[in-house]
Amino acid sequence: MFKRIVAKTKVGTTVKVKVWRNKKELTKNILLGRLETSDDFKVGEKKPEMPKDLIIEDLKITVRKLTKEDIKTRKLPNQTTGLIVTKIGNTSPLLNSIKANSVIVEVQKIKIKSAEDLEKIVKDVLKSNQKTILLAIYNNQNQRRYIGVKLD
Questions:
Q1: Looking at domain 54-150, which of 2.60.40.1120, 2.30.42.10, 3.40.50.720, 1.10.3720.10 is its CATH number?
Q2: Tens digit of each residue's pLDDT (9 = 90 or more) over 89-132
Q3: Model pTM?
Q4: In whole angstroms, what is the distance from residue 68 CA to residue 63 CA?
């Protein structure tokens, strides 16, 4: 009966409730709120969006941001950041070095947190005289590897 009365009362209404505590009857003013586990509340919740695939033109690969779910599923260290390689182009300089689903975590010893980080570092290397980049990756067996790749 109590649940029905509360359910029929408007959210934000202050009501008087009598409670029995320490062998005494007390009257308390209670402000009714919305039950966050109710279906009404869940409708307003947004589901996390899947990260979008982004193309790294200079490397001819497609990547997406590493998610917490990826970290959990692959049993990577909790604080891991990076990009999952989703596709490798036929003319990519990485074609013979890594496979799809590898995780790029560092480039030139700099932690990667976004595709923009990777793009900037690759562009900087291409502008310099180096033409070789050092990648730290987790391969498909979750082994951390360092790979040197020549950019032509």
A1: 2.30.42.10
A2: 999 999 999 999 999 999 999 999 999 999 999 999 989 888 89
A3: 0.67
A4: 16
